[in-house]
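Problem statement: downstream parser choked on a complex file, so we are re-checking the raw output for the magnesium ion run. The parser issue turned out to be on our end (a line-ending mismatch), but while we're here, posting the original submission so the record is complete.
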Amino acid sequence: MFSLHGNGVGTGIAIGRARIIRRPGQDIPQYTIALSQIDEEIARLERALFRTKVALQEIKSQLSDDAVDEIGAFLEAHLLMVDDPMLSEEPKNIIRNQMINAEGALNQHAVKLAKLFDDIDDPYLSSKFADVSQVISRIQGELLDFQGDLTSQPVGTFDGEIIVTNDLTPADTIELKKHRINAFVTSLGGPISHTAILARSMKIPAIVGLHGEIRYLRTGDLLIIDGMRGVVLVNPDAQALAAYEKRREKILSRVRELEELRSAEAVTLDGTKVTLLANIELPEEIGESLAQNAAGVGLYRTEFLCMNRRRPPDEEEQFEIYRHVLKQVNRSVTIRTFDLGADKQVDGGRASDTLIINPALGLRAIRLCLHDLALFKPQLRAIYRASSFGPLKMMIPMLSSIEELDQLFILIEEVKQELDHQGYAYNANLPIGGMVEVPAAAIAADLFARKLDFLSIGTNDLIQYTLAIDRIDDEVNYLYDPLHPSILRLIKMTIAAAKRANIPVSMCGEMAGDARYTRILLAMGLTEFSMDPAVLLEVKRQVRLSDVKQDRAQIDQFLESPRPERIKQMVSELNRVPE
Ligand code: PEP
Ligand code: MG
């Protein structure tokens, strides 16, 4: 038994078997094996060599007649290489002598061969290493437990397992929602990455940002995942298992306790009424929001409709989906227009081959939509058409200048005229809100508030842009701090601007769903919170323990304090429940 440490996210404790998922280009694992495992490891390498040969022969047999000459010779050369003892024998010696796994041995040999080829003076011969390297990658692919695309896996493939992988893209997260996995562990990812948001929404624990330690995990290992403490226990002994089973039971009983709050009112001790809404990424999540008795959907991330498919859904498909969501929820639904770009791409980014250095600062969200009307206009039309079927609102992500709103309003006028002309019904007064996720929007929130029907604070991006920390770069996520004085001030400014303009303001970033921050946000005047339904009851519990009038008196002290540590301390004092 041993333990590994990363960032714990999601809820509770999971116990299950590991399933390693590797992607091409990922680090090759190397680990020590026991003397008794050497023969099996060599046999494993031989099986991988055999499977590589079969795969190459199969490709060769499928070649069309006119391709046989050119590509056939190339494949023939690769087949000869697989058979060549130069490639297959030395890794076996490494397995025997160094007592390491087949992947590690093959990798060591590849490094040696690369150097040999590099030393050859003849450029033609030296360039032949590219072929050797391709063959080695194929063999590695056969050796590794699972390679490739999650999208191609039948539903249920990973049921009950703990997924261990380098990283998960937002597109992967959509796929994983189709399986009933127990937990997941990734080497990359921070607490506000979409990987972490996925864990929360699946109500499972996860450990992200495990870095190189992930190489110690193997398919079939029994793991305990403690999402609260960020610990992975590998092949635990009976005593540890029993202790964690007990803790898991305790957590479950707390969840059951929380469930009693489902029908309770979200109101503070001093009578402030609070609206708790749900964030959804897929229409399938509506059931969960209804189960938690959310007052509606405060953020529907529609860009997830575009993932794992070659093209975004057209107007008709979107219209049907939005209408269906509205009908199912049967309460207010805030549709956020496509927040595509950066880490969220159509087809999960697989279709794009352009390298953008700073995608989060690039053509993203409303910028991309205004730039690509073929993408945006069908969505606007679909939203307006759906608006005649219930209490729908539209929300614009990543606003940074008033000109974007001016352009948007011109476009909306155009859409309305078209719909009038075509005889479609719609709500001419559809509320249009803006997300405050860029410091520019928070600082000038009063100007935006004059033109909009509501504001919603997206703290995930607001923190990323204000503190200059890439939300998906786990190397800087230690700087992620919702209680940073600058963040608190921007939130306060936004709330004040909305109040002055007499429009509603909500928060839909992860901060809104973290019960540690509920009281300070209430004290700052926020009364509308949108979050993952999985955490709604926890936040409701905190709302019911809060006294806004009393807490408000302390808020200036918080905002004046230059030290995040002191602010944290004050927030935990605020949260302390009297005995
Ligand atoms: C946010 O940035 O806080 C937000 C809610 O949007 P997303 O997490 O989808 O970027
Ligand atoms: Mg955002």
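For whoever reads this later: DSSP finds 23 helices and 16 strands in the chain.
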